[in-house]
Amino acid sequence: MARSVMLSKLCSSYGAFLAASSSLGSRISFSSSYKVLFLYTWYLWPTELCGESSQFFFVAFPFLFLVKDMQSMLQQESSGDWDSLGFGLVETDFMYFMRSSSDGTFSKGELLPFGPIQLNPSSAVLNYGQGLFEGLKAYRKEDGSILLFRPEENALRMIAGAERICMPAPTVEQFLDAVKQTVLANKRWIPPAGKGSLYIRPLLVGSGPVLSLVPASEYIFLIYVAPVGNYFKEGLAPINLIVEEGYHRATPGGTGGIKTIGNYASVLKAQKIAKEKGYSDVLYLDSVHKKYLEEVSSCNVFVVKGNAISTPATKGTILPGITRKSIIDVATSKGYQVEERLVSVEELLEADEVFCTGTAVVVSPVGSITYLGKRMEYGNNGVGVVSQELYSSLTSLQMGLVPDNMGWTMQLQ
Ligand SMILES: *Cc1c(COP(=O)(O)O)cnc(C)c1O
Q1: Best of 132, 157, 359 for a ligand 1 pocket test (most atoms within 8 Å of beta carbon)
Q2: pLDDT exceeding 90 applies to what percent of the chain?
Q3: Which of 56, 128, 163, 317 could potentially form a cystine with 256 if both were Cys, beta carbons 3.0 to 4.6 Å apart?
Q4: What is the number of other CB atoms lying within 10 angstroms of the CB of residue 372?
Q5: Which of 393, 383, 390, 324 minimizes the C-alpha distance to 357?
Q6: What is the rounded distance in angstroms from the CA atom of residue 176 to the CA atom of residue 161?
Q7: Which positions does the record annotate as the modified residue N6-(pyridoxal phosphate)lysine (predicted)?
Q8: How far is 227 from 225, CA to CA, in rounded Å?
Q9: Which stretches of 277-408 are DSSP H helices?
Q10: Residue 410 burial (10 A CB sphere; 0-12, 13-18, 19+)
Q11: Closest Cα to atom 10, ligand 1: which residue?
């Protein structure tokens, strides 16, 4: 009797552990799986029934799983899968999670297993779009160390955005600490040098319930990460843009200058129409004069003419990109004359090169722009020399291939 109870207890416990570990798959962490096994083995040890010699099997059994766990982790680290990485979401192990009351007192953040979060159906973010996102990358260097690129700029941009839509934001220090913790917890997902990077996505949303239009009483700051490949596998690939005449991304006095979630659903339709016609994306004009360049759906734009590189000034309708800001400094240091000003759509006719900038693409050369049915081409079906030069300079700095004279990279471990 005692024996069958003990055996069924053993079987069901190990069964439950097996089910849990296989459903969690690679997510169950090395140390927690070890702890669970150790506890079960110790708690259920049937020495009085099985005798001393049986101990070997009960120790060997959990260790088999430990070895299996280790093997799959090692394979993950070195698998050829890194070569097929695109820009889709690959789920990773942990996300960072922190709550705040409306006065900006953030709780101590914690790392949780990546997965769904609970939200009140009447939360401000679901009902009124009170939310911001950020985007940055971590690169692995050849020597295994990890580099972040200007993460404090993302923290400052989140603070500025939060002010605009009445949310409290984490301090620069809290933001940086959270980014570091999340990257280190998901370290095994950072592609090897040259194979891509870990895309980091911080979110700040109004989670408290509202019914009338008011700021939420509670906020969630969270960060998740996903490994991404180099945006263009075969080096730089020129994109084809169409100038949008009907739809606008932003208006003066609006929220175009902050990374609020509401700015993005509104560009999906213009982008969809453009893609159906074979274009890569949409280039927006200012909504007042319908004459000056603003930006692409999620990238800033630059126009090259001789030694001059011009980009629309950020006056509230254009997102102040960190790549934009960095390219301005890199180009200036290389002797280009960089101008932040109103750039008329007419200037596209005269331009030598056009390129876009953003964290995902870094620098994306533009092969053609179509405006009022007229197609203008750049780079002679290839990549313009200035676009190529700036792309190479900035990516080698971000990846730690050249000394960082700008002081832009932050090394983790
Ligand atoms: C994020 C974003 C950019 C690029 O900003 P980076 O900091 O360079 O990544 C440009 N335009 C829009 C609309 C964006 O959302």
Answers
A1: 359
A2: 75
A3: 317
A4: 7
A5: 324
A6: 17
A7: 259
A8: 7
A9: 322-333, 347-350, 385-398
A10: middle
A11: 299
How buried is 214 (Cβ within 10 angstroms: 0-12 exposed, 13-18 middle, 19+ buried)? middle
In this structure, the residue with its CA closest to atom 6 of ligand 1 is 321
239-398 CATH = 3.20.10.10
Global pTM reads: 0.83
Average pLDDT over residues 229-244: 82
Hey, what's the torsion of the CAs at 146, 401, 137, 77, to 10 degrees? -50
3-class DSSP state for residue 354? strand
Q: In testing the pocket of ligand 1, which one of 247, 267, 299, 359 has its CB within 8 Å of the most ligand atoms?
A: 299
| Amino acid, res. 324 | R
Q: How are beta strands 308-312 and 337-341 bridged, if at all?
A: parallel
259 annotated active-site: yes
Q: With contact defined as beta carbons under 8 Å apart, do 103 and 235 qualify?
A: no
Nearest CA to ligand 1 atom 13: 298
Give the start-to-end residue ranges of the domains of the chain.
Answer: 2-78, 85-228, 239-398
Asked if the model's pLDDT at residue 245 lies above 50, the reply is yes
Helices 151-164 and 322-333: crossing angle in degrees, nearest 10, is 130
pLDDT of res. 30 = 44
- 45 exposed, middle or buried (CB, 10 Å; 0-12, 13-18, 19+)? middle
Residue 334, token pair as written in the block: 């290389």
| Arithmetic mean of pLDDT over the chain | 87
CA distance 227 to 197: 6
CB of 21 within 6 A of ligand 1: the answer is: no
Give the C-alpha separation, 287 to 271, whole Å: 17
In the numeric block, which tokens belong to residue 387? 């676009």
- The neighbour count for residue 66, using CB atoms within 10 Å, is 14
